[in-house]
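User: Design a sequence. Structure:
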């Protein structure tokens, strides 16, 4: 930069002079600013630091930085597209490491590209292409097709014949080709068109075509990239060099990447002859094996077997609220691409447990059965049963009446109340129908009269008391009969003796 006089000098003139001489223009720091934005993500910086010290595959990187494989793949793609990483393939495995050169997007593709054609080219790959001026309309005093991918871009250069491809005085349609030694997957491209505000100017339009080996009945042909859109940005002394948001780049973009070995740019000139400072092509690696998907079969089955949102009315509000939270979590885990095996298994287990804790609300049929039991209880003839057994029935009726009008009553409670009424009715105890003194054997009418037991010691006096008991009247009658019998026997004997003696 030009020497300038500073408003204040503080005795460090020599140092300031040196810095003034060495300091670049502000535009030179744009690449550094872009690099800082690229590494503003802590996880990305961690991955880049790791790959500055070793070479590793996606799975191992994910384990070392404690991130999911899809997340690591995303960061690797960003770092590689920016030229900070390079990769190589060994069998089915792809290994990543820091590139030998970093931060220079235009030249990054030239660094550390393996010679093995089975390894995909990624990032900006124009440096690995052979450039061809198909129509040969380049001016004799310009660098020609070699300028298209020499890494010299605006604002590093403005316009110099030795650094550009220009076609003065030719106009019309111009064709430029890139060809690679292997199939590449291209997802975007950009061009720096330039003008000298004279014979060289910005084109009216441009488009890209890729080589389709199956086109033209298998003979191959260049075909337009479907759904591609293109912008045109001017770089010239009058328009300024690399100004605005586009930074001097005219962009070609499309939704679906194309696979090819050759790419063609078709330029339609404006009022002046077209000129190009640099043509970049961006490719991706679509051959990287996807991480092994987690087996979600058990979780899928658990979701299928578990109640759905429209089943909420079948359960109590409290139990459903707890279950719904677990259900939502399980659904999110099932949808998550980076869910771990442990997380998936735990989601299935928690969902099954939550489903078992759901409390079912009583159905219309359950309430109808309970109502029928209440009707049966009301029909009981309460005059026939004891108060104690009726009290049990009344308690069951009271519980049932409280539940029959409660919309939140559970199925288990209603069924229990129904069974309680049924059991109470079955357990009713009938009142006694006999009057006092009329039931069973009357007093004294039994076969064993009082005091006529077999005890031989009956009516004997108590030896210890020294008292005599009164002989009952029934004992005197027996004694009298015995005396009468003795008298009759004696009389019979006397009569017999008289007959023998002949006195009667």
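Assistant: Done.
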């Amino acid at each position: 930069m030009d020497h300038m006089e500073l408003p204040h000098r503080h005795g460090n003139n020599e140092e300031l002079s040196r810095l003034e001489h060495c300091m670049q223009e502000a535009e030179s720091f744009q690449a550094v600013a872009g690099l800082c934005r690229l590494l503003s993500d802590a996880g990305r910086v961690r991955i880049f630091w790791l790959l500055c010290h070793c070479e590793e595959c996606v799975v191992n990187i994910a384990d070392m930085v404690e991130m999911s494989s899809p997340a690591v793949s995303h960061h690797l793609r960003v770092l590689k597209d920016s030229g900070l990483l390079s990769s190589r393939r060994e069998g089915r495995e792809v290994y990543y490491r820091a590139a030998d050169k970093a931060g220079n997007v235009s030249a990054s593709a030239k660094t550390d590209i393996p010679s093995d054609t089975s390894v995909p080219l990624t990032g900006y790959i124009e440096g690995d292409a052979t450039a061809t001026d198909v129509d040969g309309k380049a001016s004799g005093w310009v660098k020609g097709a070699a300028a298209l991918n020499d890494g010299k871009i605006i604002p590093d250069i403005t316009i110099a014949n030795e650094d550009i491809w220009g076609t003065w005085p030719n106009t019309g349609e111009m064709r430029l080709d890139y060809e690679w030694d292997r199939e590449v997957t291209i997802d975007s491209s950009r061009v720096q068109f330039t003008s000298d505000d004279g014979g060289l100017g910005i084109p009216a339009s441009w488009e890209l075509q890729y080589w389709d080996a199956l086109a033209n009945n298998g003979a191959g042909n260049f075909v337009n990239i479907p759904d591609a859109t293109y912008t045109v940005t001017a770089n010239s002394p009058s328009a300024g060099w690399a100004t605005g948001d586009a930074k001097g780049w005219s962009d070609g973009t499309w939704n679906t990447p194309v696979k090819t070995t050759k790419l063609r740019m078709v330029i339609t000139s404006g009022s002046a002859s077209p000129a190009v400072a640099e043509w970049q092509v961006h490719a991706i690696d679509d051959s990287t094996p996807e991480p092994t998907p987690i087996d979600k079969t058990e979780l899928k089955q658990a979701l299928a077997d578990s109640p759905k949102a429209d089943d909420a009315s079948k359960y109590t509000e409290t139990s459903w609220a707890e279950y719904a939270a677990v259900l939502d979590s399980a659904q999110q885990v099932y949808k998550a691409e980076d869910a771990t095996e442990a997380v998936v298994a735990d989601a299935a287990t928690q969902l099954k447990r939550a489903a078992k804790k759901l409390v079912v609300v009583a159905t219309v049929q359950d309430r109808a059965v309970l109502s029928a039991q209440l009707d049966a209880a009301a029909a009981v003839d309460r005059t026939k049963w004891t108060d104690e057994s009726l009290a049990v029935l009344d308690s069951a009726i009271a519980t049932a009446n409280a539940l029959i009008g409660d919309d939140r009553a559970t199925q288990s409670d209603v069924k229990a109340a129904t069974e309680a009424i049924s059991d109470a009715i079955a357990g009713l105890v009938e009142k006694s129908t006999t009057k006092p003194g009329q039931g069973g054997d009357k007093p004294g009418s039994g076969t064993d009269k009082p005091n006529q037991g077999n005890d031989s010691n009956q009516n004997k006096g108590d030896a210890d008391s020294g008292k005599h008991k009164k002989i009952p009247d029934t004992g005197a009658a027996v004694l009298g009969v015995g005396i009468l019998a003795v008298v009759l026997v004696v009389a019979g004997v006397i009569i017999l003796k008289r007959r023998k003696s002949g006195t009667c």
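The chain has twelve helices and 13 strands. Confidence is low (pLDDT under 50) at residues 101-115, 453-471.
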